[in-house]
Amino acid sequence: MNVTKKEKITKHRHDTGHSQDLQNELAVSSDASRLVFKPREVQEQEVRGQEKIEAGYQITQHRLPIAVNGSLSYSHLVGQKWNQAVVKTVRIKQIQLEQDSGKSLHDDTRKQTLIDLNRAGVALMEIVMEPDMSCGEEAAAAVRELQLILQALGTCQGNMAEGQLRVDANISVHQPGDPLGVRTEVKNINSARFLAKAIDFEIQRQIDVLVNGGVVHNETRTFDFKLGQTIPMRDKESLQDYRFIPEPNLPPLIVYDNESTPVNADPQQVINIDLIRKNLPELPSAKRTRLVDQYGILPEHSFVLVSEDGLTEYFVSVLQETKAEPKKVIGWVIKELLALLKHYSLTVSQR
Known about the structure:
Residues 1-22 are annotated as: Disordered. GO terms for molecular function: ATP binding; glutaminyl-tRNA synthase (glutamine-hydrolyzing) activity. Keywords: ATP-binding, Ligase, Nucleotide-binding, Protein biosynthesis. Helices cover 31% and strands 25% of the residues. By secondary structure, it is an alpha+beta fold. Strand 11 (184-189), helix 3 and strand 12 (220-224) form a beta-alpha-beta unit. The radius of gyration is 22 Å and the shape is globular. It starts with 19 loop residues before the first helix and ends in an 8-residue tail after the last helix.
């Protein structure tokens, strides 16, 4: 059975207009995901009758996202020892810019709901993936890879626990050859590990419902990590009727290349995707391949080195200082160094 899933990636900013830094970060992230750029992007108002947006409407992109039709290749470790890397690809439907909304805080003791507007109006980047993943671990692997890419690009620190990156998962089940089933949305999952658990639980829950003659409802759910299961949310956002109208207060965001850039344009005031593409840093997949080829380490060890910020650089510095065999150094890093850091709740950058 297949899983329908959508990822929502949040990138915090302190304004809702088109700052040059935010425009460049959108373009960099889009190009790294091999998306096709739209030459002209227009903002729209999404009219939502809800209390979590002070203005009463949300600025978003509906008809013209900044980039479309991309892909993300990620490696999924399989096998009894999780030492076999299988490369898979998920299609990226689009990347778009929109405003974040506030969040509801339900107080069961006092039987009231509070509204936290601290993040309302902050600009976020939303990445929408196609339903190409079939289990929770595949989805978690794709999110981890995307997290590493965004961190390498400098467009997002990617700390899910702090809400810098949030994931919504749309999940449905169906028999092979049948159309996609009715989907449920599990919102605001804050770790890749919980994402895998939430999806796998929801897959089995929907299968059990259908096997017992029930009906899967299109609803919004959340993942209770203590119970290890998804539960219905109180506000059924899927039932709201959204209306989109053009946003007149923001100018169009235009992406250029070398051929289309105006002759007298200030390079600091335009987004030139060819210049951005030329200056992209080494991405995680390329770094893993280089480590395997250059130092002769195992592919699964390259995943460990790339997965934590600064670990690759530390590995290389130890090699240069000690002149030891790479296989001995990687063994020490994985078995002793990482265990020691975990024991003292430290990261490589804090060593």
